[in-house]
Fold:
Amino acid sequence: MTTQTMPTDLHDFFIDEKKLSNINNVERKKFLQKLKITKHLFLNGETSNAEVCQRFNVSLPTSMSLLNQLIEEGIVIKKGRGKSEGGRKPDLYGLVENSFFVVSIHIERFRIKLAVIDNNHTILHEQSWPAEISTDSNIVDLLFEWTQKLLKEAKVKLDQVMGVGISMPGLVSAEAGKNFTYYLSEQEPESLKNKFEKKFKKPVAILNDAKSACLAEFRFGTAKNKSNVLVISMDWGIGLGIIMGGRMHSGESGFAGEFGHIPMTEDGLLCHCGKRGCLETEASGLALVRKTKEGLKAGQTSVLNKLKKEELEKLEPETIIDAANRGDQFAINVLSEIGINLGKGIAILIQIFNPELVILEGKIAEAKQFITTPIQQSMNTYCMMQLKERTKIELSTLGANSSLYGGTIAVMDDIFKDQVSLVKSQIS
Structure:
């Protein structure tokens, strides 16, 4: 029987070139297999020996031996029994609690959310700070200061953190670590990613917020094991994550999915992108707040009229959705208008991509039937019947934290990929 030791930090489990040079080729191959199992458990959670065996094409004794070694090294632990498939219930294996942590930062237009997330995708502590997004690249020091406060409150040391995942709106090249809309860095010698890595002294992944949400859905959300899925991020802005052929699609420059900036109305309102009539000006959180304020100013009857002047100035989608949930007809009507406009855009996407599933996530998705019903009505009008009938529309099950989870997955994907590449390069 295997003796379980005290948990080992993943930093201690990972290997460098010096350690690699001190072990033989057989041991390197064995470590590579254990590395892949660890990544699998991180992404998929509790797993049986038979599933490991099937996933990595090894014999049952071999996979059992590898799991036992990971138990001895304090990385893996038995987590009870799975469902019986005719015989004895299989043992389930998962990562030891708190074997590593990730800091995830989600930058919104008017708020920045930070969270400490453990290896089992549990948010240990999160906090939001009001901060309007800008083109000023001087954000690194501030976020480092906030991260230190967050870690202190979560009772996690910085050296226990594996990396930092950052999701943000705008044009973001995840590969280059550069953002071309906010916190501009294109005129500077180093990328935003490099700036963060220098300050945090940790690996950093930066990606678009909609793609971050899509990554979370793809890895362990509603899109898991699906081949053709669109993830619509309905927040202050509108974004799109694309899964095609069972893979995330980013496009040539990493900018695929700028759904909010398709032309919607001729000579419409000026969008922040510099064009007029973008979908985002008629079907986003920004549009929802603007249309609500315009209606109230015009004398519409609503519970929102009770808001103080300063509350109205800082009006957020959540407040409007809350009014709709309380039966406020004006709020319901404004959400319906947003949904109809959004449905037109989704109809276009369905006819281009022919997805099996469209997932709605973000602030506006929290309106549930008040947004999904008009979307469906609009799709009935603007989408070909044969395509619409084969496409399911579902709300995200990950809630408001999908982008936080996506940032965590992005940085850990990079870290595991670097480890795998290093070990493979030393195997003869």
Summary: The chain has three domains: 10-97, 101-212+403-419, 222-397. Confidence is low (pLDDT under 50) at residues 1-7. DSSP finds 16 helices and 15 strands in the chain.
